[in-house]
Hints:
The complex is a heterodimer. In chain A, about 35% of the residues lie in helices and about 25% in strands. By secondary structure, chain A is an alpha/beta fold. Chain A has a domain at about 5-95 and about 180-285: 3-Layer(aba) Sandwich (Rossmann fold), CATH 3.40.50. Chain A has a seven-stranded mixed β-sheet with strand order 6-7-8-3-9-10-11, sandwiched between helices. In chain A, about 45% of the residues are buried. Helix content of chain B is about 75%, strand content about 0%. Chain B is built from eleven helices and no strands. Chain B is elongated, with a radius of gyration of 22 Å. Classes of the chains: A alpha/beta, B mainly alpha. Chains A and B meet through helix 2 of A and helix 8 and helix 9 of B.
Amino acid sequence: MSALLDIKDLKLGFNTLAGYVDVLKGINVSIKPGEKVALVGESGSGKSVTARIILGLLQEHRDALVSGDVQFNGQNINTLSPKDRASLRGKDISMIFQDPTSSLNPVFTIKKQFLEVLSRGDEKLSRKSRVDRATQLLGTVSITDPKRVLNSYPFQLSGGMNQRVMIAMALANHPKLLLADEPGTALDVSVQAQTLSLMRDLVTQNNTAVLFISHNLGVVREFADRIYVIYKGNIVEDGPTHCIFNNAQHPYTRALLAAVPRITGTGLPDVPEVSDEFLAPYVGHMQVS
Amino acid sequence: MRTLRILARNPLSVVGLVLVLLIIFAAVFAQYIVPYPTHNGSVIDFAFANKPPSARNWFGTDLVGRDIFSRIIYAYQISLTLGVVVLAVATPIGTIIGLLAGYVGGWVENVLMRLVDIFLSIPPLVLAIAMMGVLEPTLTNAMLAVTVVWWPWYARLVYSIARAEREEGYVLAAEVIGASAVHISFREILPNCLPAIITKMTLDMGFVIIIASSLSFLGLGVQPPTPDLGSMVAEGARYLPDSWWLSVFPGLAILVAVFGFNLLGDGLREILSVDK
């Protein structure tokens, strides 16, 4: 099967007052339709900018220099016109963020925002059928009283509720690719786990491909089919989830795995901030497909 | 209803609301409620000139025998019209410039906000006086002068809010679903600026009235015989303290209007910040 998203030798740098900063040093990522892929790395490793590039947001930033190939569904996002890029967003590609409550505009009801998202997918849909669709979609994320939720403002709902609303909105227009940038990191752990399993079921049903961006390997283990580990703008290791967990080869991946705190109380391991070992060459696991 | 309840919790803002409503009512229906409807023009009645307050003339009469109470009500008409027109023009201009600068950023922000800074660096009254010195002293020109000194404050206010809102998640979320810059500025960010804008407009009504009165106090605003609070105070000031009613009542009228709008504005600020 050909890849839905194929990133080849993607480089990104920023011109800043202090000079040129290299952020991505040539990464390769590919996602097949319906595949759930995680991009894992520490803060500042280049995870989130990768998502911004897939959305075509950074290409329009005047201080960002993007090179390489980002093929999405047969189109090169880097060379598309800004207008064509904008038309992909919200339809073929959508995104879920860290903090669901702040991702919703505080001065509008959920209903108004949901209907706007739906009309982005199909402008001809009548208001009534959009309301019905929103109600039905909220049902799919296990919201039992969609009427009340639709008429609420974001600040009247809990973080977990808002997260579900965001998931329902993100999947409303049947995107081919969902970018999840540390979804639910702002929520408490149990709520995060609930919404993530909900999200996993839904994307599996809809056959939506997911790029899951996280710093937390534990969360990713439950969710992803395949994992890319990114360190300082380089992919250092990639492979099927079980290979990464059972047979990590790269020193940085091992350090990352060791850094997950365990409930047995052995304390946090000493992970050096920078180590020459982490700069070891890329390790690719055999693709079993 | 909820709005009224919150307003009622703060008695001072109720006082403000009542004062403002009274002033608006009086100004709108001036012809029907003033005791001497013709006294807004050049009526001369020397038999009753310069009389202290009495049952016939509650606030006394001026030097040519016109009823001061009637003239104050008519002057409110002018002040309110001026305030409404100035704010109706200055607010959208300032808001659009502030939104553009705050959301678009880059050189647009630099050019627009430095322009705003230039205007803000000159004291408003001085700038308005300078403009009126060049222009003919008419009501329209007074409105123009006050508008020119007023819009930068809105640009600054909206800019600072837009700047902060731009970093909010919902703006990124809107960008991500492909919303245009215009949509994001006006449909996402602007509604979040409205509470501050509305509060400032209410507070500003009072200040616009003061600055307009200051202009006409200096003879640079509305010209006689049209009644204006500022020029009435100026005219009577020469006869203080003997004919105190000539300037004290128009002065009190300015005070009451500014006081009312300020109290109401403070109340609104509380109500609108509760929503957030």
